[in-house]
Amino acid sequence: MRPLIVCLAVLALTSSAFAAGFLDSLTAAQKKQMGLNQLSPAQAAAINEAVAHYQAPDAVVAAQRAAEVAVADYKAKQEPVVVARAVSATQQRAAEDRVEKFSAQIIGRFTGWGGGTSFALDNGQVWQQVGSDVYYLSPVENPTVEFRKALSGHFRLYLPDGTWVTVKRVR
Description:
Blueprint: H1 2-20, H2 28-34, H3 41-98, E1 101-105, E2 109-114, E3 118-120, E4 126-129, E5 134-141, E6 144-149, E7 155-158, E8 164-169
Helix pairs in contact: 1-3
């Protein structure tokens, strides 16, 4: 956004100088010294237009250079931030990949949890809910769930819909 503002400001300054005209920028003494004080309005307009046309390529080049510098400055300031975000995201994904996880089936009918609920698994393990959260769902027979070790060190039991509860292994 900032490079665009700089470009527009440069263009506005150059176009306002052209709009005023070359002859309007001269003092009466300068006009008299150059013999331009007796021009007709049409002649003055023609001279102003010729000078503006002559200077226009320089103004466009100057505006383009200013825009290029502004864009380069913007990129230089933003690049470290972008790189830091990418590195952070990569590190977070790597940490998540290192997290211990496994899937198992809860044996029998499962309707959710309600504070201290035990979960008997098909691999012989028994896990118990930590805390008193309550979550009920329609009865499901032998659902497959996933256990993931959180960064805090606790395990969480995840249902297929993404709902989870903190658990600890009892057996």
